Amino acid sequence: MTERLRWGFALSNNALPLLRRLLNAGLIDRIALPPNGSETDPAWSSRGVAELLSAEWQQSSAFVAVGACGAITRLIAPLLGHKSADPAVVVLDPQGRFAIPLLGGHAAGGEALSEQIAALLGGAAVLTGACRSEGRLALDSFGEAWGWRRGSGPWDVLMKQAQRQAPIQVAQTGGNNRWQQLDGAPSTASSSSAPDLVIGNAPTAACNWHPPSLWLGMGCERGTSLSLLDRCVDATLAELNLAPEAVAGVATADRKADEPALLDLAQRRGWPLRCFPAEQLAAVTVPNPSAAVAAELGTASVAEAAALLAAGPAAQLRAEKRIERAQPGEQGAATLAIGQAASQWAPARGQLHLIGSGPGSLDLLTSDARRALAESCVWVGYGLYLDLLEPLRRPDQLRSDGQLTQERERCREALELACQGLTVALISSGDSGIYGMAGLALEQWMALDPGDRPAFTVHPGISALQLAAARAGAPLMHDFCTVSLSDRLTPWAVIEKRLQAAAAGDFVVALYNPRSMGRDWQLGRARELLLEARPPGTPAVLARQLGRPEEAVSLHTLGDLPLDQVDMLTLVLIGNSTSRVQGGRMVTPRGYPGAELG
């Protein structure tokens, strides 16, 4: 299978820096340059772009074009076929303020790509599709985010049925059913009605989504013909009424890792090839062991054992070993078995995004975090934090609310979903690496076998400390530290030592988790410890509900700090010996008296 590329091109040279940002971020694969390779060639015009589009249209997944919608529309008009085959086309203005999915919004992923581009550039995705504007689930595209592959069926009929808001019946025999919690998800079919949408391994007359949960275990003689392998696979799938889209990949013995026909089979069909050592295959109990294979390869089974190993724990054989022999003009022989994964998700390596959502205002959410949110099909987090991000969530993105004190459980859920092939956002307020979820999630991630770990990315956010400082003035211009007063995970004796060290070191101190209904004395004790090393007149700031409509920031002194006004939504910021308040602002000089500033 030829790799389907995402191309970027522009109708003017001044847009090339914008395209390079998309290239560096991985949102496009190639930039179309003038024929002579010069970025300033005046001959590079719509004629050159038309030639590119004509040559690459059928084998590309998307084109990102910088220019006027009218000009781009005229360029692609002669190439338009059917929406099931056309690539996505996303149009940007030269400043990157707007991303418009001109073509292929659903099936080709144009809407999702537009949102990712807009998040990266700090612009807006202009989405005019009926599903998005009406808050409905796009039934012809939502499954891709869940690792499923779209099969055959009357998709146009289904989408028109959904647009009329007619009842849609779903039958599901594979894949996790949590997708039914998505906004606008249709109901499951009753026993007396024919389904309109089927989720499973078998092709049907309805519209089909296929979770790829089948692994083809294959062994073959050296030099076996590719046509023999093709015939073996196609005949077996057809006999068992299994869709090729339900195949997750091919598995074999590591001694076959360089077998040309196996490599070609996997490459042409877009299937990963997994290879196992003989000792690992030999440990698998199979129904049809072979003494001859054991004598030659050191394992009594290749096809059945590899299929079961690749399909994972508790896998079952959907098809036992069968042998395909050469026909005239071919050579070699092959064995094939099919293992079915017990996991209800696609058995692929997913992505875990650790996202710092900032203090609360969407204006303070970084473009990096916005892009990760747009990519994720499941958002996991504490309900309050998810509420603040709710305006950004699409109908095809699942929200999983957790309790405030169940951080480990939220990490475990997010990691399990990512291990099962999904792209997951685990959300913290502020910065996820500052009293957030990144550390707990990373510990659990590191406990996994390296081969089972999903991709893991931490996206920084604006912490409450930063926003509190910005609102108060400039209190963090010299050395500072943060201390959490929550003794739920840290013994109070350790917290006291840290407070004493901060006081002795004359640090500006930010106190997180300062006071709750169940912990109402710790803040008072912290003030006592700090007063042992600095005067009562030391400036202090109470910053509550930062970045939210209820935001309140007030200036005080350490001696008269109003403890009863502090709760878990408050950050307490205490100055050092040089901090002062002037003109209603708190400032800490960059250097001590007599020091020379650089």
What attributes does this structure have?
Rossmann fold, 18 helices, 598 residues, five-stranded mixed beta sheet, alpha/beta, six-stranded mixed beta sheet, Nucleotidyltransferase, domain 5
What does this structure look like?
- The chain is α/β, with parallel strands linked by helices and 598 residues long.
- It folds into 5 domains: 5-128, Rossmann fold, CATH 3.40.50; 142-210, no CATH class; 214-340, Nucleotidyltransferase, domain 5 (2-Layer Sandwich), CATH 3.30.420.180; 351-462, Tetrapyrrole methylase, N-terminal domain (Cobalt-precorrin-4 Transmethylase, domain 1); 465-587, Tetrapyrrole methylase, C-terminal domain (Methyltransferase, Cobalt-precorrin-4 Transmethylase, Domain 2, 2-Layer Sandwich).
- 28% of the residues lie in helices and 24% in strands.
- The strands form 6 sheets. It has a 6-stranded mixed sheet with strand order 2-1-3-4-5-6, with helices on both faces. Strands 7-11-10-8-9 form a 5-stranded mixed sheet, with no helix packed on it. A 5-stranded mixed sheet has the order 14-13-12-16-15.
- Helix 8 links the parallel strand 13 and strand 14.
- Helix 4 runs antiparallel to helix 12 (367-375), helix 14 packs across helix 15 and helix 17 runs parallel beside helix 18.
Question: What is the secondary structure topology, with strand pairs?
Answer:
Layout: E1 5-10, H1 16-24, E2 30-31, H2 46-56, E3 60-66, H3 69-76, E4 88-92, E5 98-103, H4 110-121, E6 124-125, H5 130-134, E7 149-150, H6 155-163, E8 169-172, E9 187-188, E10 197-199, E11 207-210, E12 214-220, H7 226-239, E13 247-253, H8 260-269, E14 273-276, H9 278-282, H10 291-297, H11 303-311, E15 316-325, E16 333-340, E17 351-356, H12 367-375, E18 378-382, H13 383-389, E19 398-402, H14 407-419, E20 423-428, H15 438-446, E21 455-459, H16 464-472, E22 473-474, E23 480-484, H17 492-504, E24 508-512, H18 522-531, E25 539-544, E26 552-557, E27 570-574, E28 580-582, E29 585-587
Parallel strand pairs: 1-2, 1-3, 3-4, 5-6, 8-9, 8-10, 10-11, 12-13, 13-14, 17-20, 17-21, 18-19, 18-20, 22-29, 23-24
Antiparallel strand pairs: 4-5, 7-11, 12-16, 15-16, 24-27, 25-26, 25-27, 28-29
